[in-house]
Design goal:
Shape: flat
Number of strands: 5
Helix content: 40-55%
Order of helices and strands: HHHHHEEEEEH
Distance between the termini: 46 Å
Strand order of the largest sheet: 4-3-2-1-5
Largest sheet: 5 strands, antiparallel
Strand content: 15-25%
Radius of gyration: 23 Å
Number of helices: 6
Length: 200
């Protein structure tokens, strides 16, 4: 009887916990986006113009701002302003490092032209007799050979991890999507995935 109740309890937890986590994360993102309305001067906010707040207005403002910025910086004139601003930031040592590092990471992860996190590989880590999943992020040319740069995520928190430089011969490219690899990492391996697709 106790085992059966425990099974029901765990089943209920498995059902509800992912829902709660998803709702919590989405709510946090929406609240953060909604807070962008605070950038609007008080005189021009909805509460001042019509007398009450409009739910979700901050999210709409954020989307419009992102779309407008994207349109602006992709044309010739906008790119000129961006280049002028970046040349100014390059003269400030600490700001230059933070800005350019953040920009390169975001371009690598989000832009369709980037190749980072597009390939799942298997490397020897933390020693020669162990294997772990990693994400191919690029390549670096040394004086002697071309090395692959990979990111080894920690489990179950894949947002932190280790940066490694691995020769091609010591790395195995897998027929696994990034999503499948993340599922396997987040589940501590409980959700197994085929490392190589069958040709049948």
């Amino acid at each position: 009887m106790i085992k059966r109740l425990r099974g029901y309890l765990l089943t209920g937890l498995v059902f509800w916990l992912p829902i709660f986590v998803t709702v919590f994360v989405i709510r946090a993102i929406l609240e953060w986006l909604n807070g962008i309305e605070s950038l609007i001067p008080d005189t021009y906010r909805a509460s001042s113009l019509i007398g009450y707040n409009i739910p979700g207005l901050g999210v709409l403002v954020a989307v419009i701002l992102l779309l407008f910025t994207g349109i602006l910086v992709t044309n010739w004139l906008g790119q000129k302003f961006v280049n002028m601003g970046e040349s100014l930031l390059k003269r400030i040592p600490l700001v230059r490092m933070i800005y350019h590092t953040t920009k390169q990471i975001m371009q690598a992860l989000l832009m369709s032209s980037g190749q980072s996190f597009r390939q799942v590989v298997m490397v020897n880590y933390p020693h020669q007799h162990c294997k772990t999943l990693a994400f191919l992020t690029g390549q670096v040319d040394t004086e002697t050979e071309l090395l692959n740069t990979v990111f080894v995520p920690t489990t179950p928190n894949p947002t932190s991890g280790f940066f490694l430089m691995v020769p091609e011969k010591e790395m195995v490219r897998l027929d696994m999507s990034v999503e499948e690899a993340l599922k396997m990492i987040l589940s501590l391996g409980a959700i197994g995935q085929p490392l190589f697709k069958s040709n049948k």
